[in-house]
Amino acid sequence: MSDIQSLAARLQERFGESLQSVTVGVGEATVEIAPGKLLEVATALRDEPAFGFEILVDLCGIDYSNYGQDEWATEESSGTGFSRGVDARTAGRMTVVTEDLAVEKPGEARRFAAVYHLLSVANNQRLRLRVFAPDDDLPVVPSVIQVWSSANWYEREAFDLFGILFDGHPDLRRIMTDYGFIGHPFRKDFPLSGNVEVIYDAEKKRVVYQPVTIEPRVLVPKVIRAAEAPAPEVTDTGDADVEATAAEQAE
Which of the residues 61, 155, 190, 225 could staple to 166 if both were Cys, CB 3.0 to 4.6 A apart? Predict the structure, then answer.
């Protein structure tokens, strides 16, 4: 059993039903936790020597709108050239698509999630936590500042860009966008060109905001590939074989 699989097994044994899922992929374990269990589990992961995740490396938000919806079936149509059609399913294409995406569809709950990347220096292991906000209209998850103080600015960033509220944060306000900014620019339904633009008004002799005049256009489709193509095997033929090959090509 690998170290990652062993970690996943220990997590499942220690926390049991407190974990909604434990998965292993791309060399890392991912644990999904309900918001109500986050602080309890996070504190144990930090303090218990068996885990020792004393460092929060990163915290980010995710918007799972349109997750798994592609526009081009690349694997099936890669050899057909530009004649392959585009199924415009993602936001930013055209008005009718945007309006269609705005309609609530069944089975699309759990839109927003906060993801925590943890590091244990003592055990030389990494762990990813994921917590889904229970309400898509008002996404709220607990703040983990009391567990990892480095979460302060990370949580402000996730709030600014995704609109995720962190209950218990002492100073939750925007950190990257301008004063008076409306909306959250990393949400999937936020216009790619934004809602307003800034110009210098010569008559007023100051910078002013006005509705954006750029027409949204998306020229690159969203593509999903089922699996990565295996890397070609590289064989060390040696200098002798290289010289022989070169001599054959010269003839």
Answer: 155
Higher pLDDT, 166 or 242: 166
Q: Evaluate the CA torsion angle 29, 32, 35, 36 in order and state its sign.
A: negative
Q: 20 and 5, same structural domain?
A: yes
Instruction: Tell me the β-bridge partners of 117.
Output: 58, 128
**The pTM is what?**
0.73
Which pLDDT tens digit goes with each residue over 162-194? Answer: 999 999 999 999 999 987 788 999 998 888 788
120 and 219 part of one domain = no
Is residue 116 domain-shared with residue 213, that is, in the same domain?
Answer: no
Q: Is 10 exposed, middle or buried (0-12, 13-18, 19+ CB in 10 A)?
A: middle
Residue 194 DSSP one-character state? -
Tell me, yes or no, whether 7 and 103 share the same domain: no
- C-beta separation of 221 from 86 below 8 A: yes
Residue 30 lies in a domain: yes
